[in-house]
Amino acid sequence: MAKFLDLVDLFAGESEEPEYLLRRVHNFVRDEIKFGWTAQFDLADPDYTLAVGRGHCVPQTRLFTSLLRALGFDARMRFVEIKRDILYGTFPDSFFALVPERITHAYAVVKLGDKTLNIDSFITDPQYFFNARSRLLGTEREVGFGIHRDGRINLSLEEDSFCQFADSAMILKDLGLSDCLDEHATHITKIAPFLSLASILKLSAGLVSRLNEPIEEIRAPAVLLESVFKSYVRPGSRPDLSTLPPGLDEYHQQLS
Predict the structure, then answer these.
(1) What's the CA gap between 24 and 16, in Å, rounded?
(2) How many whole angstroms from its chain centre is CA 25?
(3) Phi and psi at residue 115, to the nearest 5°
(4) Are residues 194 and 244 in the same domain?
(5) Helix, strand, coil fractions of the chain, as percent rounded to 5
(6) N or C: which end of the chain has fewer CB atoms below 10 A?
(7) Are residues 114 and 70 in the same domain?
(8) Is residue 239 domain-shared with residue 256, that is, in the same domain?
């Protein structure tokens, strides 16, 4: 995968329009970085995340905001404490039992003109999201498998876009804004020490693979967005985008 500075040059060369660049970066991170765990966990920098093509909320938000700042945006990370419930189903049971009740979540705060947008809809790739959502809707849980049942993966330029932090009631504590991860490293280590054992996980690719098994199992069934889209739209009809599952309106625009 391209390196960070190469991506900045690529995106900058495509357009100077802020709306285009914000959507371009959002869709790149969402589509090219798979949701999952890596050997560096929260400590992964943008180049590492690009190299492995995988990450969760902290490294993906770090990559997303770093790309936007390099393109001239006012974009920062916001850290909040939430319950671990959203991670249900993303770890083997034996590991999930070790995750603290309160974990750190990160999302992006981006200025676009006179609007401030809060965004984490780039965190789960489409195939994972639709499979995870199908599982979640089969339960009575509001959150689990790394998503919120009201989450979406399409970006709105008018309002907040969340696939994970879709309900402000999830917040247990606001840890504030930051331009970089370093300022909040103490929060991450204190609140989620299990997720910050980078020095140990670096020694064991097998352990990282084991951690990702539940996520890969969810992602495995092929989700053809065209098939999902067609199940909601009658042939020859003009679709009402408001009736589509979150994320499919963007797919329809690609077809148009």
Answers:
(1) 11
(2) 12
(3) -105, 145
(4) no
(5) 50, 15, 35
(6) C
(7) yes
(8) yes
- pLDDT greater than 80 at residue 231: no
Based on the fold, state whether residues 93 and 122 are members of the same structural domain. Answer: yes
What's the domain count of the chain?
2
Token digits for 184?
């909040």
pLDDT reported for residue 228: 57
CA 116 from centre of chain = 18
Mean pLDDT of 7-16: 96
pLDDT reading at 82 higher than 90: yes
Residues 142 and 255 in one domain: no
Range of the domain at 247: 224-256
User: DSSP state, 86?
Assistant: G
Per the listing, tokens 């003009």 go with 238
Burial grade of 221 (CB within 10 A; 0-12, 13-18, 19 or more):
exposed
Query: What is the distance between the alpha carbons of residues 152 and 80, in angstroms, rounded to a whole number?
Result: 19
The Cα 58–Cα 116 span in angstroms is 20
**Nearest-angstrom CA–CA distance, 136 and 83:** 17
